[in-house]
Amino acid sequence: MWRLHPALVCLPAVLLLTCCALPGTRASGADEHVWLLGAAPEPGPAVPGPCPALRVAVPQAAPGYGSSRMAYRQDPLQLEYFVHHRWADAPALMLAPALVGALERSGRFRVVLGADVQARSALLLETQDLRVEQLFDKAGSQVRLSARLSLVDLANQRVLGTREISVTEPAAAASPEAGAAAANRALPKFLREAGLMLDQSLKGAPGLCPAAP
Predict the structure, then answer these.
(1) Domain range holding 104?
(2) Which residues are registered as beta bridge partners of 80?
(3) Which segments of the chain are extended strands (E)?
(4) The pTM is what?
(5) Mean pLDDT for each consecutive 10-residue tract of the chain (213 residues)?
(6) Is residue 27 one of the residues assigned to a domain?
(7) 78 inside domain
(8) How many CA atoms within 13 Å lie on the side-chain side of 162?
(9) How many domains does the chain have?
(10) For a tag on the chain, would you pick the N or C end, based on fewer CB atoms within 10 A?
(11) Is residue 33 a part of any domain in this protein?
(12) How many other C-beta atoms are found inside a 10 Å radius of the C-beta of residue 122?
């Protein structure tokens, strides 16, 4: 009578356990959690300001941060991603409308344009090296939102200001759910820092923003 070798009988179970343990593998039928990144609009209408029209370029992500995968790090040099959790879109694409909305409500500019609006603007805000990541260490977990912002005077082909902005927000637990919540708490702080960067850059260009009569 033909019989399976005991080692072959155990092989399927070994393979199943190995697959479940591999980083990045997805269990069949596992639930996927999708998270949004966005700032709640502040009350009050946007009042056009004295500064020229500003265009907000599409933010550019740092290498490894350009997809909808939720990034985390336990080691400074190793970037990893949660398997069953992801952003609704790439964080760079969700940051763009948040920047436009916050700058509209600031009242600094005559108009704030998104990257896809076909209209001329005198100023350009560029965002590069964007990173949204959850960090784990012995003390717990925190989320870091960072990017390099540059304000460009298109008419005179000059950079008015450049600044690296980094905001860190503690997470309530060492989990992707808590990380998503922390990222959404960090975003308004990041937007406020971006506004301060623009204010400082515009002060270095006298006459660009005429005083209101």
Answers:
(1) 50-203
(2) 72
(3) 33-35, 54-56, 69-75, 78-87, 112-113, 123-137, 140-153, 158-170
(4) 0.83
(5) 43 36 43 91 73 96 98 96 97 96 93 92 97 94 98 94 98 97 98 96 88 54
(6) no
(7) yes
(8) 7
(9) 1
(10) N
(11) no
(12) 17
